[in-house]
Amino acid sequence: MVSLFVLTGCGQSDYRPESTASGEQMFAQACSGCHGEGGQGRFGFLLTIAGTEHPADKVATKILEGGLIMPEFVQLTEEQRLEIANYLKP
Questions:
Q1: Assuming Cys at both sites, which of 12, 26, 51, 85 could form a disulfide with 56, CB separation 3.0 to 4.6 Å?
Q2: CATH classification of the domain holding 14
Q3: Is the distance from CB of 82 to CB of 75 less than 8 angstroms?
Q4: What pLDDT band is residue 77 in, cutting at 50, 70 and 90?
């Protein structure tokens, strides 16, 4: 099951938020499937992002570029990525 998750998590997301979506709404729709509601993680500690001390611009870049199993969100604007990042701030 983990290998299937890894294979399906790569690539680019096709998520397109409504123009009025808040950081919390965008996180709930695009991120909570893996990171859990509020960022507590769903598949173990590696996907836990709640309460991290990373600067918002670094989080926004990670949202843009993705990661090993996290898809890229290139369709989100910088403002949208920063809204998600600021929602996650402790």
A1: 85
A2: 1.10.760
A3: no
A4: very high
